[in-house]
Specification:
By secondary structure, the protein is of the alpha+beta class. About 25% of the residues lie in helices and about 30% in strands.
Length: about 280
């Protein structure tokens, strides 16, 4: 089932214009959400990021785009499509309405919600081999637009093709200063003993929701010290652990980068603590 501007329709009946600006120009922003036992995880953080992204994109925010209204639309869509499923992935896309070429004639918006099932309502510690490599053909710009979830994902698409063709599970992206920024599908963390480092927003990484959760949790985790700091590619092989975070997969440990094999003990511990936080609400 698809939710198009508040109307839930079968997928084959949901129609958007071929002149859709999200399709033509990537003039759209989105949030990927995890729904666990009828609740959107970290919904307030998602909502605030969406509102910030729309403001950066100079989109008009409709009066009915309240946190309660959008939450209801997302949950109604997920329930209609998957009434008995406990774990659901949903995507809320907001796109500027058609009109104009590169310069829009207005900034009014429409929205689209889709959903699909997930295997488990909580995060699991993934023990499968997971190898990554640097993507060096293209660079991520360390500007404001790189920090929002927009439909402009050409760099990530090409990185995904590179990873598939070369039998990697993911790629790490560099910015124009050749510093490590993030993975194709989430934020990157490096573990050095009890210190956990992640690139700062100013380097161009996404304002990830799970990234924010871990940094917020740091105040209650005396065993670890979190740092937001610029990461050189040379540090990757010096780290004890690497892991990638996003709200769908949770914490994905990296097992190998080039000739370096990594431990996964810290990521396993953080998954446990994250699930406790979710259960306690």
């Amino acid at each position: 089932m698809i939710n198009l501007n508040g109307t839930i329709l079968p997928e084959q009946d949901a129609k958007i214009s071929p002149l859709n600006r999200g399709l033509f120009y990537g003039d759209a922003v989105f949030e990927t959400l995890r729904i666990s036992t009828g609740k959107i995880l970290f919904w307030e953080d998602h909502y605030l990021r969406l509102m910030a992204s729309m403001r950066i994109m100079r989109m008009d925010i409709p009066m009915n785009f309240t946190m309660e209204y959008l939450e209801e639309q997302i949950l109604n869509t997920a329930t209609a499509a998957n009434p008995d499923v406990q774990a659901i992935k949903a995507r809320l896309t907001v796109y500027r309405n058609e009109g104009g070429l590169y310069t829009p004639t207005n900034s009014s918006v429409s929205f689209l919600i889709t959903s699909e099932t997930l295997e488990t309502p909580f995060y699991l510690h993934n023990t499968k081999p997971y190898e990554v490599e640097l993507l060096k053909d293209y660079y991520l710009n360390s500007g404001l637009l790189s920090t929002i979830k927009s439909n402009n994902k050409l760099l990530h698409v090409l990185g995904g093709i590179f990873a598939r063709e070369n039998h990697y599970d993911n790629c790490l992206l560099l910015n124009e200063n050749k510093m490590v920024v993030e993975a194709l599908n989430g934020n990157l963390f490096l573990v050095f003993g009890n210190t956990i480092k992640t690139p700062p927003i100013s380097d161009g990484c996404l304002r990830g929701i799970l990234r924010k959760q871990l940094l917020d949790m740091a105040k209650q985790l005396p065993d670890y010290r979190f740092e937001e700091t610029t990461i050189s590619p040379f540090e990757l092989q010096k780290a004890d652990e690497l892991f990638v975070t996003n709200v769908i997969s949770g914490i994905q440990p990296i097992s190998k980068y080039r000739k370096k094999d990594y431990d996964t003990q810290v990521s396993k511990d953080l998954v446990t603590k994250l699930n406790v936080k979710i259960r306690l609400g």
